[in-house]
Amino acid sequence: xxxxxxxxxxxxxxxxxxxxxxxxxxxxxxxxxxxxxxxxxxxxxxxxxxxxxxxxxxxxxxxxxxxxxxxxxxxxxxxxxxxxxxxxxxxxxxxxxxxxxxxxxxxxxxxxxxxxxxxxxxxxxxxxxxxxxxxxxxxxxxxxxxxxxxxxxxxxxxxxxxxxxxxxxxxxxxxxxxxxxxxxxxxxxxxxxxxxxxxxxxxxxxxxxxxxxxxxxxx
Length: 219
Prior knowledge:
The chain has helices at about 15-30, 40-55, 60, 70-100, 110-115, 120-145, 155-170, 175-190, 195-219.
């Protein structure tokens, strides 16, 4: 049975490394502009995954970091399902905020992309649609959720804490419940299916949002 409190006997060197990586990532996100903060950490994550593969790390197989072993048709179906759930969460959150009389602004990243020129927007697409999902799934769902919190507390509580942190770090009240729901879903798929399934869900969310912004620019 999982404990609802920390078990310090399970604390390992990797736990320190996980927290260290999360702290460094947080500092980068806070200090660098949103569209540039993902680039360097993204390449660090790619190198980390390649290292895990070359060293035959058990986590590489346990969390299905292999692209070849990922069923992307199934991942696409999961992503569509998760997007539908997130839309429902967004509608519910919008009703709650209006009922409370709270006015909100767009998520910072959405506003920044909307304000970009078309050329600058297109240059930023890889960071939004590819870099950010891979990086954030590695940091939040793998390091924070799987490798740190799950060592001490029940996975459900771990997923809730991870999702609260994930939502708060995006500094967007208007998208809070959507981000929280997205994180809960990706925690579930990371835990039960593997890394690229959670990444696919995240990519789908960002791709649809980016596409809608692109269409609005053209019109």
